[in-house]
Design brief:
single chain; alpha/beta; globular; 5-stranded antiparallel β-sheet; 9 helices
Amino acid sequence: MNLTQRRVPQVFELGRSSSIRSFKSIDSSSITHGIHVFQCPDAVGIVAKLSDCIASRGGNILGADVFVPENKNVFYSRSEFIFDPVKWPRLQMDEDFLRISKMFDATRSVVRVPKLDPKFKIAVLASKQEHCLIDLLHSWQDGRLPVDITRVISNHDRFPNTHVVRFLERNSIPYHYLGTSKENNREDEILDLVQNTDFLVLARYMQLLSGKFLQRYRKDIINIHHGLLPSFKGGHPSKQAFDAGVKLIGATSHFVTEELDAGPIIEQMVIIVERVSHRDNIQSFVQKSENLEKQCLAKAIKSYCELRVLPNEENRTVVF
């Protein structure tokens, strides 16, 4: 399918903008950053209404992306703007965007103010391999991921003196060991633990989540697959790729669906600088793959939290 993208130009002529001039009279520390995403049937005047909504409250758009798929009557947009929360209170902002949402019969209208809104609450599920889990924990500690990790759940038991358990204890993050078997996948217990989360992250969690679990959880779940989907689905993708003699290693972050490794793709990365060669063995191949997996998963989580990821048709995403 051919896709057409329309972009709204970014305007930086600060001297000509009355909304920007109004910011000069106040302390710059009070200027706050906001994000708004919008999805609705395509129509004339959507961009104008969204822009006027922000400008009429003294805000100023820093950048806007608009996407309309060819031959599809659907409109997507993501806007970043600055505003003074004294002049545009947070609750008023929700009401203003809700009014536009009703005007255009929107299927999605989400506004986020990172400075004022709570961080996304997540739970991380992991198995024995720790490279993605450890990277997420340190990224969270360094403030590079805009989330609150509420707990870590694993089907692999870890001893008290291990690096992961010590880290979690120091940061008061609960660790739950739920050993699984063919007879008991522990999904009821997992559901009880993650009820108050905004989304889940599978950091190399090597257990399939059932369709029943997905229907009961009803929120997004982000998974990392150590392969360039749709190739090498299922178990041991690194070995599959190595045996196939690939020259580029890939990793894929995607949403979890009932079909294995077939959910909408959020992010994909490949090693470009350091290619796979005939001199690589399975150990060096896996090591290169693991470094890529950490980057790909972290990028997907960050994009999700910044409202850059929107569903597009059944098995596609729009990533601004």
